[in-house]
Amino acid sequence: MAGGGAAPPVKLNDVAVLMGGVLLLTAFVLLFWDPAIELKPPEVEGELPPGSYPATAHHQTYDLSSGDEVVVDLDLIDCPGEEDAGDCGIVSIAWAPEGETLDADDWTHHQMKEGGSLEENFDVTDSGEWTLYLSTDSEISVDMDVEHQWMVPWVAMFTGFAIASWGIWHGQVSSED
After folding, report:
1. Distance from the CA of 69 to the CA of which of 13, 56, 97, 151 falls in 20 to 30 A?
2. φ and ψ at residue 29, rounded to 5 degrees
């Protein structure tokens, strides 16, 4: 030891249980932790003409595989303005491969009611990094789920489970001897 002391050697099965458990826990959190994003338009000082509200934009990049399906759930929390009548919020969504610029026809625009929700599906055509662009004049909550075609995101969880199981089994077998 660095301090000049002595310590018993660490057993391989203890290291396997520790490493497998950490890998399993980390994979579990990464796969199932799904925080929602909330977007709010900027506050404006002064009065705006009727029907014109400031918009907020957001973009986020995801690494997706060909064949994946992305489901975006949008909930309109609060509309702009004081008099909400009928459809009051506009939400625009676009997907583009990383580094490509968007054209006007890439966007889909949705008129929503306060308290309303919308589900939009996106099928990934090519593997790589894809960017989700959102623009809104209202306060919205966005929740996104990816349904993977392949089980690649699950590999770390299965590997961690296998390593931890082997470590537990090896520890029980070696203690019986």
Report:
1. 56
2. -65, -45
